[in-house]
Design goal:
alpha/beta, 16 helices, 5 strands, binds 2-acetamido-2-deoxy-beta-D-glucopyranose
């Protein structure tokens, strides 16, 4: 009875309202349909944002303040989807997470040039030795020009600035005021995780193995073995066990980059630049342009440019057959790629490198 009444009144309403013919009525229906589709789409986008926000809350909860203000970063990141999927796969909500945690305090090697308000935190890799020399140059230009004839040889244990402007704490800046610049610019140079790992593997497990006891966990040149052992070592260290954070060659070169430079507290205080040996020139150009802005004389930046790019350090050894071979080995093995993601997931996320595509992507796309 009641339903009859309602449907009757609806019909009358429609008839009254649309007595002027069928065409407008159809148009009205199509419009409704379009509205409904748009509405549903908007809901989907909203839902997706909610999922991401929940993820961020989840991350933040797990790692406290380090994740503050990173929501913005994550929103900008094109990789949302992969991130959510990988998080779900490797960190189910029951408390067991296979991803190596980010922002563990491992070490912090700070180089300062207070005159120009320039500082750099360096993570082991080739460009870091060059950057150390550059900051030393800016630290005291006259002394550097007088004492150092070849910049590219001012490295390792023979470097001029050893301990002069080198610290282990970010907060040392509080005690110095930059002279010519308004504020500090703190550089952090990061590398694509796979490229960095392969570079470390070739250098430390294949080329530079003499004088080291059981290098690379005694795996010889077996990259699967090295990755498995390294994963276990990182897992142990990240289990909140300070004593286990020993400084081995392996951990220093294969540990996550987010474990360096006090990033837990200072992630947002760095100007983070990506480095790849093939792009040394671009990176150097970016740095020198900044330095000129901070008042470093052109004669000095020109000198740096010439000395760094003139040598063959950066061209000669990049595309070696070993590198190409081992990169392919990892890229072609679903197992090793997964291990790579487990180790360096947060380096990919926080330094803005695209995550490797894992097999699980395919199933979740359908
Ligand atoms: C959590 O769940 C995963 C599968 O969803 C399972 O493999 C793992 O053993 C569980 N861990 C704990 C601590 O319950
Ligand atoms: C490399 O190491 C893995 C894991 O330790 C092992 O399963 C595999 O057999 C090794 N491969 C070779 C060629 O020794
Ligand atoms: C990187 O450093 C290693 C030594 O740690 C050296 O053998 C290698 O030639 C360097 N590579 C480049 C590209 O400078």
């Amino acid at each position: 009875m009641r339903i009859d009444f309602i449907s009757m009144s609806v019909t009358t309403f429609i008839q009254r309202r649309f007595h002027f013919g069928q065409l407008p009525f159809l148009t009205f229906l199509v419009a409704c349909l379009l509205c409904a589709i748009i509405y549903l789409q908007l809901q989907r986008v909203k839902q997706q944002h909610q999922t991401i926000n929940q993820r961020v809350d989840f991350l933040r909860h797990r790692e406290d303040s380090a994740f503050e203000k990173t929501q913005d970063f994550i929103k900008r990141n094109q990789e949302h989807y992969k991130m959510v999927i990988y998080e779900e796969k490797f960190c189910p909500h029951n408390g067991s997470c296979d991803l190596i945690k980010p922002f563990i305090h491992y070490e912090s090697r700070q180089m300062l040039a207070p005159s120009y308000g320039v500082s750099a935190c360096v993570i082991y890799k080739n460009f870091s030795t060059v950057l150390t020399s550059i900051i030393c140059y800016l630290y005291d230009i006259l002394r550097y020009q007088e004492k150092v004839k070849e910049m590219m040889k001012d490295t390792y244990n023979h470097r001029l600035c050893m301990k002069d402007n080198e610290y282990h704490s970010f907060n040392i800046r509080d005690r110095m005021t930059p002279k010519t610049a308004e504020k500090w610019t703190n550089y952090l140079i990061v590398r694509e995780p796979l490229e960095r790992f392969i570079s470390g593997f070739v250098n430390k497990c294949i080329l530079d193995v003499v004088n080291r006891d059981k290098p690379c966990y005694g795996c010889d040149e077996n990259i699967t073995c090295v990755m498995e052992k390294q994963y276990q070592s990182l897992k142990t260290m990240s289990n909140n066990n300070k004593a286990a954070r020993k400084h081995t060659v392996e951990d220093a070169h294969f540990g996550p980059q987010s474990w360096h430079c006090e990033l837990r507290a200072h992630y947002l205080d760095y100007k983070i630049l990506q480095y790849s040996p093939a792009k040394t020139e671009e990176l150097l150009e970016e740095l020198l342009t900044d330095f000129e802005e901070f008042g470093v004389p052109l004669s000095v930046t020109d000198d740096i440019r010439e000395q760094v790019l003139g040598g063959k350090t950066f061209h000669a050894t990049f595309d070696t057959p070993e590198r190409i071979h081992y990169t392919k080995v990892v890229e072609e093995s679903p197992y090793l790629k997964e291990l790579l993601v487990k180790m360096f997931y947060y380096d990919y996320v926080f330094f803005d490198f695209p995550l490797p595509v894992l097999e699980i992507d395919k199933t979740s796309d359908s």
